[in-house]
Amino acid sequence: MAFQPIVDVTKRRIIYYEALVRGPKGESAGSILSQVTDDLMYRFDQECRIKAIELASELDMQERLSINFLPNAVYEPEACIQATLETSKRVGWPTERLNFEITETERVKDRAHMRNIIDSYRAMGFTTSLDDFGNGYANLDLLTDLRPDSLKIDRELVMGCDSDTRRQAILSSVVTLAEELNVTLVAEGVETREESRCLLALGLPLQQGFYFARPSLEALAKVDDTLYD
């Protein structure tokens, strides 16, 4: 696992870390996931959760931990969460500091199943995020059925936003929508100071990207305080 920080630019601090799958030599998540067959997906999903929590505890992470999960690997939320709960208890990780990011939305055919996962996790005290919002299948129509706690705005809408009035208009609309739906927004893929300043001006203080820190393999990346200026 690698960990990348998500920061609150206004408060000038890291608010949580996202755990990202990596190979033993730092291979990308895509290269690893491509090797996971359908019959191993459930086990892989469970092992990733366990590994992320164990490592976060070993690294003495004090912030919240965000873990990606594949909805199709969750056949029944309460049953599938047991290994996560057992691991959290074993290492002393507070379950209220866990957030689950929904990925691979293009593969989900049963939205009622995904909504059940989100609602069940909320009832257990977890929070959930919808990843890659604004790109591909992670779009507005999902919000007619799903009620995640947060949306992670895809890099496609973030890149070059400081010099692109169309992107600024779209982002501004998303901010308004999120306020009305009571959903928190996180801007992903922030790579320049100009993008960060623009996002903050548009009402998006929660940010993640290479500008602040690249994912650190089995370590907690730090953020230089001057990057908030």
Automatic annotation (TrEMBL):
It holds the Pfam family EAL. SMART domains: EAL (SM00052). Residues 1-229 form the EAL domain. It comes from the Bacteria. CDD domains: EAL. One of its GO terms (molecular function) is cyclic-guanylate-specific phosphodiesterase activity. Signal peptide: none annotated. InterPro entries: Cyclic-di-GMP_PDE-like, EAL_dom, EAL_sf. This is EAL domain-containing protein. It comes from Vreelandella salicampi. The lineage of its organism: Bacteria, Pseudomonadati, Pseudomonadota, Gammaproteobacteria, Oceanospirillales.
